[in-house]
Amino acid sequence: MLSAIGLVLFYQRKNMSKRTNKVVFKPYAPAQIQLLPPSLDELISPTHLVRVVNEVVDQMDLRQLIADNYEGGGTSSYHPSMMVKVILYSYAMKIYTGRKIAKALRQDVTFMWIAASNRPDFRTINGFRTGILKDTIESLFSKLVQFLIEQGYVTMENYFCDGTTIAADGNKNKIVWNKSTHRYKQLAEEKCKELFNQIDQLNTEEQKAYGDKDLEELGDKGIDKKSIRDQVNKLNETIEQTEDKRKLRKANSLKKKLEEQEIKINKYQRRIETADGRSGYNRTDTDASAMYMKNEEILPAYNILAGSENQFITGFSIHQNPNDGTCFKQHIEELGKTAPFLPESITADSIFGTEENYELLENKKIGNYLKFKSFHSEQKRGNVKDKFHKDRFIYDEESDTYTCPNEQKLTYQSSRIITYKKTKYISELKTYKCANCAGCPFAAQCIKSNEIYRIIETNEKLEKYKNQARSNLNSEEGINRRKRRGCEIESCWGDIKQNMNFRRFHVRGKQKVKTEFGIIALAHNLRKIHLERTKNVA
User: Fold this and answer.
1) Is residue 308 part of a domain?
2) Spatial contact of 203 and 215, defined as CB atoms under 8 Å apart
3) Residue 302 forms part of a structural domain
4) Is residue 517 in some structural domain?
5) Does residue 14 lie in a domain region?
6) Rounded to an integer, what distance in angstroms lies between the CA atom of residue 304 and that of residue 295?
7) Intra-chain end-to-end CA distance of the chain, in Å
8) What range does the domain containing 65 cover?
9) Which residues of the chain have pLDDT under 70?
10) What is the pTM of this model?
């Protein structure tokens, strides 16, 4: 044990050590002026995304952009190369509004570096994005696709296509439904007809001449602007000529009501013209259509079709129609404007498998890997078609007949032409009928309708394309493509919607929306380049 003196000496040494050991901090002087401040370039990692954006844009030829949009004279302008870099980098960093981009230029070292310390305000940024880029986004995207091909990231041999809906910058409570508009217009026209009859009753001579018949102005055309104006003019004549106060009050009242209905009819007609065949549109952004979203909510939105290879977006298009298959033809036309050449083959889901789209690929000499509507059900295990399904009937091209499972012949009867409402595409359907179904033991199973003979209707052209697609999709190459499709274009949508958090457009109007998605597609590809380079470095 320690003695009392030893304990006293121990605690004295301990207290002395506490007094001599000082707490030491690293230098911290925020207001200290540096004699040689560091370069912004030193503060950014060599593998940072901002360097990828800078490098790729520097390799783009922007001379045409400058020639088309800058006339010279006046005050100096911000360099378009710098503006393009700033906007692409901000979208890649999930910054989408002009004010936030301007704020980043003041506060973020990487933004300061890529802008070379330039600080355009949010008005300049928004003006460049919706103005100059609106007319040049296709050219910029084409240059990036060319860069991807030259660097070996894509080959344009494979093209995996799919669509998605992205909400528009519109109030979801301000959707105008075309069907309701037609109904309201019809009610207003019926009200006008009632007013026309009341106007007719004011004139005794017209009543004697026409009796119970409608006025000539109505004819078979219904209500139009001319017929309403004619009735208003007639009321004006009555008001000027009559001295009967009761008749004068009635004429003024009818004129007021008729003009109110005229305003309504004109309003509904403008809405019908704006809808242009769509089921509904948004009053805030009239180019946006009413669409079902993934959560089954109806919102004003745009349908985006895009294609990818190695998870790089190599083509895109904007549509007001929610049906991907209907928009496919326009998408291929847009692809021809931005891609240096069309892809060798296209792989897409069953909604794209229509006769028109198959014919389009055949004419363009593009490989057909489009699924058709019944393809998935055919692939299920144990799925055996009904023995008497028309697909099980054997076709003989020489005699132009089908043979049923009971060895009976179905001969050609007639053809009919159908025209698809949306695309105006024309198809031919052929009808075949069995000549001898009487006494057939399978008649109850084979004939599903009220007919006494089995009748089938076929689209020979579509069946030929489906057989071609079935053969391609079930080949070894087709199976590989089907496996890849899910992780190709779907990964692009996942990156844009989840990682980049881009679920709604920030501009209005189809052309501006196209510009913004073009920027998003460019930003996605730049992020992908950065990811590939980071993998190689690792």
Assistant:
1) no
2) no
3) no
4) no
5) no
6) 17
7) 61
8) 40-151
9) 1-21, 202-222, 380-386, 536-538
10) 0.85
